[in-house]
């Protein structure tokens, strides 16, 4: 039985960032920040919320983790990558999912955002979801 006396995790307060890839864009200089922030490096506090889900994404770099923390044992090997939204010129560090043959994965392939389980907390039963990325052309990858 879950312990309901535990406060809502920080993870749930960031649902917009994790589920919808919400970022902030400075109205003064146009710089985009993910995760969103309240002040731009130019000093402006006039920022708008935007979604990074729209746009073309390219896998720029990746690495395969064979030794993972206990919470991620069922997902191994885990592929982490740097994905670039070429429309907004911003890069994200994210998990690459749905790859059947890692040897066929390579840099500069188009990827798309997908909604997946990130981890499960076995002690109190919380399932954390978030956005991961997968190759657009799954054939052979």
3D architecture notes:
This protein has 141 residues and is mainly beta. It folds into two domains: 9-53; 55-141, no CATH class. It is built from two helices and eight strands. Strands 6-5-4-7-8 form a five-stranded antiparallel β-sheet. A hairpin with a 6-residue loop joins strand 7 and strand 8. The longest helix has 6 residues, at 15-20. The radius of gyration is 17 Å and the shape is globular.
What shape does the CA trace take? globular
Class from helix and strand fractions: mainly beta
Low-pLDDT sequence parts: none
Give the tally of structural domains. Answer: 2
Strand element count? 8
Q: Main sheet?
A: 5 strands, antiparallel
Specify the number of helices.
Answer: 2
How would you state the average pLDDT, rounded? 83
Distance between the termini: 40 Å
Widest sheet: strand ordering = 6-5-4-7-8
Percent helix among the residues? under 10%
Computed Rg? 17 Å
Order of helices and strands: HHEEEEEEEE
Strand residue percentage:
35-45%
Q: What order do the helices and strands come in, and which of them pair?
A:
Blueprint: H1 10-13, H2 15-20, E1 22-26, E2 32-33, E3 47-51, E4 57-65, E5 78-85, E6 90-96, E7 110-120, E8 127-135
Antiparallel strand pairs: 1-2, 1-3, 4-5, 4-7, 5-6, 7-8
Task: Give the tags.
single chain, 141 residues, mainly beta, 2 domains, 2 helices, 8 strands
């Amino acid at each position: 039985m879950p312990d309901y006396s535990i406060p809502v995790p920080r993870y749930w307060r960031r649902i917009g960032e994790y589920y919808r890839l919400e970022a902030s864009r400075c109205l003064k200089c146009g710089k985009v920040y993910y995760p969103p922030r309240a002040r731009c490096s130019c000093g402006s506090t006039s920022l708008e919320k935007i979604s990074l889900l729209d746009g073309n994404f390219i896998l720029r770099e990746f690495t395969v983790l064979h030794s993972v923390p206990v919470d991620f044992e069922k997902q191994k090997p885990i592929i982490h990558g740097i994905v670039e939204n070429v429309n907004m010129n911003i890069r994200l560090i994210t998990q690459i999912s749905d790859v059947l043959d890692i040897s066929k994965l390579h840099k500069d392939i188009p990827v798309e955002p997908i909604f997946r389980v990130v981890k499960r907390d076995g002690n109190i039963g919380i399932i954390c979801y978030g956005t991961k990325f997968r190759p657009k052309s799954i054939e052979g990858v």
